[in-house]
Amino acid sequence: SKNTIILGIETSCDDTGCAVIDGKNSLLGESLYSQNAIHIRFGGVNPLVAHELHRENIEKAVAEALNKANKTSNEVDAIAVTTKPGLLVSLQVGVKYARYLSKKYSKPIVPIHHMEAHALVARMYYDLPFPYIVLLISGGHCLLALVKDINDFVLFGKSLDNAPGEVLDKVARRMKLKNISEYSKVSGGRAVEMAAQLSTNPGLFEFTLPLLRHRDCNFSFSGLKDALVRKLIKKEHEHNLKGDEIIPEVNDLCAGIQCAVAEHLAHRTQRALMYCEKNNLISPENRRLVVSGGVACNNFIFESIKFICNNMGYNTYRPPANVCTDNGVMIAWNGLEKVRKQCDIRSELSMQEVDPE
Ligand code: KG4
Ligand code: ZN
Description:
The chain is α/β, with parallel strands linked by helices. 42% of the residues lie in helices and 18% in strands.
């Protein structure tokens, strides 16, 4: 039979990502236009700027992915596009362009849920039969879920306040890590990881773990952020710092917060695994956990989660780093899985289905 070709389009936040994959699970071509460097100057994603830049990049991004794949729009069998959740004005740019291509070349369109795509894309790289457990940790989300099928998820817990990446970005900013040239071009989370590696006293700052007594699988990161700011202010006063000066213990403080985030994630994950065991949700041969989202790139955090998984007889997986962060590959992959299952394939997609949630 004919090889299926899927085009994936992602514009839910600040990255314009496209990819072309085929029915043999091969990535044929991809493109990514990241707005990160621009938004850093605003201290967060600016919706107006995001909208403008997606509009500026969407045509180039699609053309580049198709060119690299050596395919034309007409050779595509279906167009998968993120419809939720995300920034409404960002989502609309991708959906509008997908609708335009769909009409022009009479191609079916497949609506994709951004989180489901994060949770499923590991299946493109590993043999991961359902069910498995997923931990999604990024700048916009934090959740633990059971993945029973491509469109069947059971949520165990989510963050009650900030996402872990959001907190790492904020504390990196507050510690002025961007003023150190090695960190000026990386994300806040990556800067914290690099600084923590240089720590000579990783136990210097102790953090109280959040929600220790809560008998559920939810997360909370805002308390850790506040605790870090208090410790930072105390040190700034002790050293009598002013303006742009950075505390001498900055590496130790990064190690402390990274360790607290890792421990909290590992602790809540352990609860979810115990819950699954108690309720027979995962049989012994299906003990698999996928970690995805931008924060999964952090090796210390990943290893901490892997450690508790190992102890409970689980294997731990994560997609390649550039597929953990927002990208078009995961959208194309989810499109391919839906085409294979013949579910959610549309001849037309209404703009009302675009949902920031
Ligand atoms: O998945 P992603 O690209 O976007 C969404 O938030 O959906 O994740 C970006 C987040 C940022 O907060 C960034 O600081 C964090 O992932 N991140 C990291 C690392 N690399 C990226 N956090 C910790 N350690 C890293 N190495
Ligand atoms: Zn994401």
